[in-house]
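Async update (no meeting this week)

Hi team, since we skipped the sync, here's where things stand on the single-chain job. The sequence we agreed to prioritize is pasted below, unchanged from the tracker. I ran it this morning and attached the output directly underneath so nobody has to dig for it. Comments welcome in thread, and please keep replies under the output.
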Amino acid sequence: TPQMAKKWLDERNLKNRRIKTRSVEKYARDMKNNRWHLTNEALAFSTEGVLVNGQHRLEAIILSNETVEIVVFLGLQSEDGAFIDEGITRSAADAARLKGIPVPKRDLGTIKYVFNSAENIVLPLSNSEILELVEPYTEGLQHLHNILPSKQRLTASAVVRAAILRAYYWCKENDPAKLDRLK
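Output:
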């Protein structure tokens, strides 16, 4: 609960790394929008009761004001906290493959740029957020596949592909006759 998260942060978060606000905000969005998933990644407390892992998730619980189910691990040696999170992070492409969503990796990068340019922000999106955007952009992404050579450097750029994708949807909504010019 948000109350438990606050208590643990106030009383047990005695030495930890600096908070990355954008990560907390990303986690909180997923919690608020029912995209947070129970995984094997636990909050971890040392044998002395000090929080060793999970401060960003606890901050996100407070920010989202949501109660989430999360695994708690007790009894870690304090010095072992220095070796947490050394593994390979799952990318949106990894998540898509694991969920059986057939989408090329470059399309996921394109989607991130389209979303951020539409919102005039640079927001780190969670894998869940990116995968939710695949379906709404499927038609435009297919258009990109049809008109762009796949191996040329300029058209492989996610920024260029995002600009064309945004133009596709703008034309479709505002001036469908211009769609032919996007070929």
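Quick observations from my side:
Strands lie at 43-46, 51-53, 72-76.
The chain has a mean pLDDT of 87.
Reply here if anything looks off.
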